[in-house]
Amino acid sequence: MQTMRETFLSTVGAELDADPRLAVVLADISAAQLEDAAVRHPDRVINVGIREQLLIGVTGGLALSGLRPVAHTFPSFLVERPYEQVKLDLTHQGVGAVLVSSGASYDMSTEGRTHQSPADVALLDTVPGWTVHVPGHPEEARRLLLDALPGNGTVYLRLSAAVNAEPHHGTGFQVIRRGGAGVVLAVGPMLDRVLAATAGLDVTVLYAATVRPFDAAGLRAAVGSGPADVVLVEPYLAGTSAHLVTEALSTTPHRLRSLGVRRDSEVRMYGEMSDHDRAHGLDEASLAASVRAFLP
Amino acid sequence: MTTTGYLIPGTPAPPSPGFADLPGLMALLTGDEKHTAAATSTLDVLWVLYDRVLNVTPETAEDPGRDRFLLSKGHGPMAYYAVLAAKGFLDPGELTGWTSARSRLGTHPDGTLVPGAEIGSGSLGHGLPLGVGTALGLRAQRLTTSRVVVLLGDAELDEGSNHEAIALAGRAALDRLTAVVIDNDSATHGWPGGIERRFAVEGWETRTVDGRDHEALYRAFTAPNTARPLAVVATVEPKG
């Protein structure tokens, strides 16, 4: 199976042939993989070099000229480093773009803090109007990309090496399992481990590959009239979507437990992704313990 | 000048405003007919561009093939608003209420609000990268007659994002891109050897002219350039 990143690169390469409005902007990352597409479309595959402010500035300018730009690099260099460019060169100018990151919170598990980006979704939450996709499977990533390319909006597609075994297509929060003792919302690659961690528990498991806009109606439908116990499991900063859960359930008595990448300290370790999962309490055993401890 | 002529239907069109009318338009913004050099550092460049260089009018402001002017140095936009009003993009009557809650005109321009403004600016160092992207986008769409002109200040060049853009524009040979740098000697640490060198070393064609000399500015903007981007350094009085 292709990784999400490989799927993205092959799909966007083919779409460049089909859609003359499409342009891809790179900052060296993945430039080698798109070399053939750059030969076919030298004016629409633009590698700006290791210049990430310019990556987003050029993306905004391409959109102002009438093209549909896709910008791609690691999330720390796509959202965090050029945050003001995202805010001003895209949203403030009133233009759209598709930002596609690959690397997630700690895919590059041996490369340290400089290549980890657990704050990307939280940062985009400070800028209005962004659609945020966190696919859990390469085929989901491919479909979400193909949906985003023809539009005009600002879309963030967060690709990861962490995947679920099967894709789950559909809009809004999908009900994967029904139960009566609580609702667990699993975002993107968190689903399979949430299902395993909650096996034997009488809980509803919701799945979200799209977290912005936040499917408040879907959450309310799963919760019912309450009182409700809700667990949020996100593959980036813990509690990133907590304010939206609270807003969605503002008239429903509820308790909320937010699980995700820890905020209280910087985890200075290397090792495998699974080591980082454990450090953040996002492995199956830790999730099972957290959910059981929280539910009444 | 009389500005009410724009507002009365059926009256003959008044003569098109000239450079001499700009102080009156700026006075609508500030209530002051006498402006400091700092407040008008961009005035002559803006006038020459909109009067004689840029192929854009209120009627063609949305045409894909228009020339684009990107005001990167967004602070002190009075001269910009005055020129937009003189050229019919803005109703001069709109100048009087600027910065009020009901006005579309603020102390930094918002590109989605100001008629004729291609971008919103204020935070320094965003216009040239946006201009490079616009020039690349126009080239990809074969809209090769369109010019992209970006106005910066010499202190704005401090921002590193400009230097990312200068390097790429030179290497991409964006011959339809012009950067005009208003040099009023306000960069804190200065540019030893001159501003031109920062562009020339990256492959730009460069011209330094008197930023108050309309003929010299016109020639700098319109003399044929080779297949390279063009940097025009317009020198004005040092900021007081």
TrEMBL record, chain A:
Which domain of life does this protein belong to? Bacteria
Transketolase-like pyrimidine-binding domain ranges (all copies): 2-165
Q: Which SMART domains match?
A: Transket_pyr (SM00861)
List, alphabetically, the PANTHER family matched.
HYPOTHETICAL TRANSKETOLASE FAMILY PROTEIN (PTHR43825:SF5), PYRUVATE DEHYDROGENASE E1 COMPONENT (PTHR43825)
Any Pfam family the entry gives: Transket_pyr
What the entry lists under SUPFAM superfamilies is as follows: Thiamin diphosphate-binding fold (THDP-binding), TK C-terminal domain-like
This protein's name? Transketolase
Among the GO molecular function terms of this UniProt record, one is: magnesium ion binding
From TrEMBL, chain B:
Coiled-coil residues: none
Start and end of every Transketolase N-terminal domain? 34-225
Q: Which UniProt keywords apply?
A: Thiamine pyrophosphate
Database matches in Pfam families:
Transketolase_N (PF00456)
Please list the cofactors this protein needs.
thiamine diphosphate
Q: Which residues form the signal peptide?
A: none
- InterPro entries associated with the record: THDP-binding (IPR029061), Transketolase_N (IPR005474)
* PANTHER family noted in UniProt: TRANSKETOLASE N-TERMINAL SECTION-RELATED
Into which family does the record put it? Belongs to the transketolase family.
Q: What is this protein called?
A: Transketolase
